[in-house]
Amino acid sequence: MSERTTQPPETEADSDTETTPTTVSSGATSVVRALENTGIEVMFGVQGGAIMPVYDALWNSDIDHVMMAHEQGAAHAADAYNVVSGEPGVCLATSGPGATNLVTGIADANMDSDAVVALTGQVPQSMVGSDAFQETDTTGITAPITKNNYFANDADTVGDTVGEAVALAGTGRPGPTLVDLPKDVTNAETDRDPGMAQTPETYMPQDEADHADVETAARAIEAADKPLLLFGGGVVKANAAETAREFATAYDIPVVTTMPGIGTMPEDHDLCLSWAGMHGTGYANMAINHTDLLIAVGTRFDDRLTGGIESFAPEAEVIHVDIDPAEISKNIHADYPLIGDAGRVLEQLDGALTTAPDADEWREQCLAWQEEYPMDYAAPDDEPLKPQFVVEALDEATSDEAIVTSGVGQHQMWASQYWTFREPRTWVSSHGLGTMGYGLPAAIGAKMAADDGEEVVCIDGDGSFLMTVQELSVAVREDLDITVAILNNEYIGMVRQWQDAFFEGRHMAAGYSWIPEFDKLAEAFGARGWRVDDYDEVADAVEEALDYDGPSVVDFHIDPAENVYPMVPSGGANDKFALSEDQL
Amino acid sequence: MSDGLDGPEPEERPDPDGRRNSQGIRIDPEVEAEPEDRRAVLSALVKHEPGVLANISGLFRRRQFNIESLTVGPTTDPDRARITLEIEESEPGIEQAKKQLQKLVPVIAVTELEPTAIRRELALIKVDGSAPDQVGAVAEMYDGKTVDVSQESVTVEITGSEQKINAAVETFGRFGIHEIVRTGTAALERGTRKTT
Ligand SMILES: Cc1ncc(C[n+]2csc(CCOP(=O)(O)OP(=O)(O)O)c2C)c(N)n1
User: Is B54 within 8 Å of A581 when comparing Cβ atoms?
Assistant: First the structure.
């Protein structure tokens, strides 16, 4: 893979130890040395003038570099690498256009609290502020979308700065960090070894919640008649899914997840009501709106989850567990704020609880809602292929640990609704920012992070795929065994769905009157391609594509009129979800 | 168009009675309970490095908090600066502003000052020069100082609370104000009470 294949493969025994630490002779080598110190194994990037010294310093490093087709792809790949592995993802770009191309990916990571470290080249300090060739104010542009960013101005300390950026990205509530690296700094001589990476002394996340607060919250749980657990992406980030499951089962409390929290609870578990929100299941949304005690862990109460604030869980007291104090009572008032690490606080609550809440009736009610509002679809043979059928076929043909990435749109909703997720870190999607084009580069990052043999499937939309299709060249070059399933409705379908519902069906700029043949496009890139139009072709194409040892693309031509349900109209009450268009 | 999913219609579903206000606080559905705004003075101790002020003002812009005033200056520690910020927000808004400020990595500490804290603002008021004696007399009334006099204008310096400056500005208005500049509030806790 990549440039590093020219080096002898490491043996099992020393794969965990640094074999050849970079010798520090310049700012750039110090940067690379700092990355090695933090255990970074892979980075994603695109070359360019201002970042060239850093690239040159990578020549002698064991860090694997994946050259991407576009910097947005590099940022998304790094992001997905983090989601799947839990380790920080690193991306690299040159100054000016390289840095601005990273912006969407950084903003995406910021909204989803993913640990991404962006290293950008910058013009020499003597030229900063002069509108020099390929200069942009990168730290200025990225300040609102990073956890923190740095302008490195000293070759002696640049390695420490990079180390701090890596440590900060992954500590507490994760998020993206950026280090802007002027060329004079990376080129300057220094022999100062960077020390071990440290977070800044002003950043001290609190691990354990206040003992007395835990006790009061525990009493509220014991007294609840209709308790409901809500697991968000923070549970995944904190590696707390196991603890969270044990907690739910020990006290027999029904669970809904947010969309980023998918996989924290196995979706086929008796207590799991799947995910809530705009396109969440009817039963999850009923449960949310009727609970009297919402135990929310690691969620920021995004408006796609809450619908209208006024009608969100209107009868519930809220226990809110979060590592970030600023999330407490930001959108939904927390009656019982518990600041701390998700897993640690759940353990504290477990320690404080003396009995499970008496909630038999409530559990029965939740089960009844599951019967009343089934996630189902009709797939008559004489109608065009239904996307839900394709998702289920892919799910059946893959293992429980298969990793799914997606673009943004209807296909993303069908993927999250009809795939049964059982493990955390297997659902990799753009939630907070909702970035079309996330799926393919994310599949590349996910594959780099996945264990051997772990399948990576990208469920993409035709529109989303077109936004970052060039990254297919990277998958081919790196020989990554990923399967892209395009749910092709020849529309930017989610937009069309809203036009149907709220703009009297005027499909302004939503249809593709002409769309490339994706199977042939895939072949042109050097990948394998299939086209599927009918139900009876699905199983074979899925099998062949999954079997193919390299990137494969299946272009599923689906029913262009299919829309996503249930749907909570934006700002509406969660339990007023529409089951069909005439209920909107 | 697709047929959608099965299940009872929205009207057939049980309806909870509760409600929250726009701050996400559960309220009695019978009463409108929107929190009222109040003025808060926040003091932040920050690292004295480039970009910090831009980060802070950017944060306030992005969250649409209206900054009433913002002052910055060094402290006795060359690596630290102190920022005084006045905002007018609802109670939850003020809490959120504090937490968001505290979240910025270069911010060391944030406190909301007591209502009794010492708050001072400085204003330079340039008025018409036709009646310098009277201007001097009014300046004295406000413990101010005449700092510049020319044929056409007199400039006075006033320090004090925001209300005092407002009053002074109004009084000087009768001479005809040419130009005015105000610093915004700087504030410290009284006595031995530490500000941050
Ligand atoms: C970068 C970007 N631009 C625009 C949008 C707005 N948008 C949301 S969904 C959507 C349609 C997506 O179309 P496609 O990828 O074909 O998926 P489908 O909805 O058809 O499954 C659009 C345009 C977005 N989310 N991201």
Answer: no
* Catalytic position from the list A494, A497, A518, A556: A494
CA atoms within 13 A on the CB side of A541: 24
Half-sphere exposure of A316 (CA within 13 A, CB side): 30
Closest by CA to A103, choosing from A131, A128, A126, A137, is A137
Pick the catalytic residue: A43, A44, A68, A71? Answer: A71
Report how far residue A438's alpha carbon sits from residue A470's, in angstroms, rounded to the nearest whole number: 12
Residues of A in contact with B19 (CB under 8 A): 310-311, 314
Q: Whose CA is nearest to atom 4 of ligand 1?
A: A436
Told to judge if A133 belongs to the known catalytic residues of this protein, a careful annotator would answer: yes
- ipTM summary value: 0.90
Question: Which of A125, A161, A180, A329 has the most B C-beta neighbours within 10 Å, making it the best mutation to test the interface with B?
Answer: A329
Gap from CA of A410 to ligand 1 centroid (Å): 8
Chain B CA closest to residue A311:
B19
By residue count, chain A amounts to: 584
Question: Rounded to whole angstroms, how far apart are CA atoms A29 and A60?
Answer: 9
Are the beta carbons of B99 and A328 separated by less than 8 Å?
Answer: yes
- What's the pLDDT tens digit per position in A470-517? 999 999 999 999 999 999 999 999 999 999 999 999 999 999 888 999
The answer to whether the beta carbons of residues B6 and A578 sit under 8 Å apart is no
For the segment A232-262, what is each residue's pLDDT rounded down to a tens digit?
999 999 999 999 999 999 999 999 999 999 9
Give me the DSSP letters along A182-211: EHHHHHSB------S----TT-----S--H
Q: How far is the CA of A548 from the centre of ligand 1 (A)?
A: 29
The label of the residue with tokens 């599949």 reads: A443
Residue A251's closest CA among A223, A232, A276, A275? A223
Nearest to B72 by CA among B94, B112, B45: B45
Residue type, A572: G
